[in-house]
Design brief:
2 strands, 7 helices
């Protein structure tokens, strides 16, 4: 079976990342189980645990008594209001009857001296007095209702005060609980994160790097999903401070390495093309040829049609759009095979036509 190095490299990369991912998944599942058991070592407080149950029970009983009293008073009030409405209606009917009767009596004599008129007027006054007596009772009943509602409001105020005090104690206990949970998780996650960072820095080029990379992925998950959500808030100061620290730390690391890479490339370009050619690896050369860029400076080596001068060439049409040397750093890109004369990419090891080893310029 013919060995295809490119396919082998791609397959190896897939296998390596699969190993890292599977290891990371199992580590995450294991850590979730461990953290879950660690969280069970402390119980979350309940707001009802801080309430004065005996005091609140007495207050709720009192407010229930007041509610029953209010229901009774409201029922009496409705009865009296119906009675007043009936008395008012009777008075209105009697007054209408009296006015009609009085109008007919004017034809018989002086109504002021008529005893029957006086009697009927007195009867009308009695109806009015009955209505007023019921109104007096209604006013007294309304006073009782107002006093009962005031007592109920005072009791409710006492209940709210007791519950507010209990909730204040509960919030303090909850903050202690959250801090305790965070510290427990910190004791578990901090060594994992430190070990993940160490593996990434020290062993990212190790032959068993997929295992170390899988653990590094797990440490990142443990930090952002197992620890960060449980950071104490304290008005957001802690969370935002951690965000600032992470941004500064990671930003410093990224800027430092990017600048180091740029400075390294700039220093490499000052070295002779022969020395730079010796350091170019085959994998870098393959990628450079595939993406048509210089393996030294990374610039494109294609010549666009509008850049090509109308000069006759014996080269094939495709080669006339390629530069033999890089226009930006002077690196030799294409050279002829010493055996068959075929033009090859100068940084690959063998000729594409005859298989002769391509020797780099010394």
């Amino acid at each position: 079976m013919e060995l295809n190095s490119k396919k082998l490299e791609q397959t190896s990369r897939i296998v390596y990342y699969s190993i890292s991912t599977i290891l990371c998944i199992f580590l995450i599942l294991l850590s979730n189980r461990i953290i879950g058991d660690l969280d069970n070592t402390t119980s979350q407080p309940d707001s009802k645990d801080f309430e004065n149950k005996s005091v609140l029970a007495g207050l709720f009983n009192n407010i229930e008594v007041q509610n029953v009293e209010l229901d009774n008073l409201q029922s009496k009030k409705e009865t009296i209001e119906k009675t007043i409405a009936t008395a008012k209606e009777n008075h209105a009917n009697e007054k209408q009857s009296f006015d009609n009767w009085l109008q007919t009596r004017k034809t018989l004599g002086s109504p002021d001296k008529d005893q029957e008129v006086i009697a009927r007027a007195k009867q009308l006054d009695d109806f009015y007095k009955v209505e007023q007596e019921w109104r007096t009772q209604l006013n007294l009943l309304q006073t009782q209702i107002d006093e009962t509602q005031k007592k109920k409001q005072e009791i409710q105020t006492s209940i709210n005060k007791e519950q507010d005090e209990a909730y204040g104690k509960y919030e303090k206990a909850l903050q202690k609980y959250e801090l305790k949970v965070f510290l427990i998780r910190l004791l578990f996650v901090a060594p994992i994160l430190a070990l993940g960072i160490f593996f990434f820095i020290r062993y990212r080029r190790h032959k068993f790097y997929p295992l170390f990379f899988g653990f590094t992925l797990f440490s990142i998950y443990a930090f952002f999903f197992g620890l960060v959500p449980y950071l104490p808030s304290y008005g957001g100061y802690v969370r935002y401070s951690v965000g600032v620290i992470l941004t500064v730390g990671l930003g410093y690391y990224a800027i430092k390495h990017i600048r180091h890479f740029i400075e390294q490339k700039q220093a490499e370009l000052k070295i002779s093309t022969q020395e730079r050619a010796k350091k170019i690896q085959t994998t870098v050369a393959e990628k450079a040829l595939e993406n048509h860029f210089c393996p030294s400076c990374g610039k494109d080596f294609f010549i666009r049609k509008w850049e090509w001068t109308a000069i006759k060439t014996v080269e094939t049409d495709i080669y006339k759009y390629l530069t033999t040397f890089c226009r930006h750093c002077g690196m030799e890109l294409f050279k002829q095979c010493e055996n068959c004369g075929t033009k090859n990419f100068a940084h690959l090891p063998f000729c594409s036509q005859c298989g002769t080893k391509i020797t780099k310029n010394e």
